[in-house]
Amino acid sequence: MKILVTGAAGFIGSHTAERLAREGHQVVGVDNFSDYYKPELKHQNVRDLLAQEVQVINIDLCDVVAMSQLPNDFNYIFHFAAQPGIAPHITFEDYLKNNVTATKTILDFAQTCRDLNLFVNIGTSSIYGLEAVSSETAAPKPASFYGVTKLAAEQLALQLTREKKIKVCSLRLYSVIGPRERPEKLFTKLIEAGLKNQPFPLFEGSQNHLRSFTYVGDIVDGIVSVMGKDDVVDGEVINLGTEKEYSTQQGIDAVEEILGLNIQLDIKSKRRGDQDRTHAVIDKARQLLDYNPQTTLVDAVRSQVEWFKSTMIP
């Protein structure tokens, strides 16, 4: 199969592109290498992808002219590219451009792909709101610009399958962790703080937040399993994550256990829009995709520590 992966140089997109290539597919990745975090980190991911013969092209999805120059013979499109995170320096216009307008552009492109079997939109548990603890039938209540625009992107995609134009599914991911996690995310920052003997900035009250911390390999298992199930998943929203629930404090404890040290905490003011609780309800994923995540929190963190030591420290 020939597969297009957007956001291919990022955390989960790079792992998915790598897996697809290892399974024998022809994979083309696109990424705009934005400066949301150091582009050098994405280039490190690209070097791994090139070793798997994944072609990675520097394209902004909002650039219609550049998009029109891509080949349109793809069988699957996995759409990861987005403006991530909840950060005060990211404007609503940034979220709108990178999550909504960019999705509209890639969807327009997808409709030109005559051999397209399925468009896979990568969504997020943030669509549910401050507590993401329900099945896919729950009413969305996003509490951040990120969640609002990711919901809009998801609906743009699903609109096309309702109109019978292309087949679409949307996968809502829960608290993904592991190697290549973005530098501003919890575990990468925790590991760095521990190894460099630096204080870790923790938002007030967040140590009690509950999360379905899910190893990136288990997430990728679910993502790639939609292939060949085009009719089954068409029009569906599907949660992917672990059913196990951990507090942020348990995450801190896991990092300290693996590093064999204590991490000093620097308590910051509470962050608006942050989720209080996520708990992946994956009955649909089990039924439709035979999805069964198995990696424990400690094993996931250990893998991330090994990656950080080999990649992030000179």
Describe what this molecule looks like in 3D.
The structure is a single chain. With 314 residues, the protein is α/β, with parallel strands linked by helices. The chain folds into two domains: 2-174 and 215-240, 3-Layer(aba) Sandwich (Rossmann fold), CATH 3.40.50.720; 186-210 and 244-312, UDP-galactose 4-epimerase, domain 1 (Alpha-Beta Complex), CATH 3.90.25.10. It is 40% helix and 18% strand. The protein contains eleven helices and 15 strands. The strands form five sheets. Strands 3-2-1-4-5-7-12 form a seven-stranded parallel sheet, with helices on both faces. Helix 2 links the parallel strand 2 and strand 3 (55-58). The longest helix is centred in the N-terminal third of the chain and has 19 residues, at 92-110. The N and C termini lie far apart (38 Å). The model has no long low-confidence stretch (mean pLDDT 94).
Q: Which short descriptors sum up this protein?
A:
alpha/beta, Rossmann fold, 15 strands, globular
Give the neighbour order of strands across the main sheet. 3-2-1-4-5-7-12
Number of domains: 2
Number of helices: 11
Just name the CATH architecture of the largest domain: 3-Layer(aba) Sandwich
Look at the structure and name the CATH superfamily of the largest domain: NAD(P)-binding Rossmann-like Domain
CATH-assigned fold name of the largest domain: Rossmann fold
What is the multimeric organization of the chains shown? single chain
User: Beta fraction of the residues?
Assistant: 15-25%
What's the β-strand tally? 15
Helix content: 25-40%
Q: Give the N-to-C terminal Cα separation.
A: 38 Å
What's the CATH C level of the largest domain? Alpha Beta
Net shape: globular
Helix-and-strand structural type: alpha/beta
Mean pLDDT: 94
The main pleated sheet reads as:
7 strands, parallel
Give Rg in angstroms. Answer: 19 Å
Please trace the helix and strand order, writing H or E for each element: EHEHEHEHEEHEEHEEEHHEEHEEHH
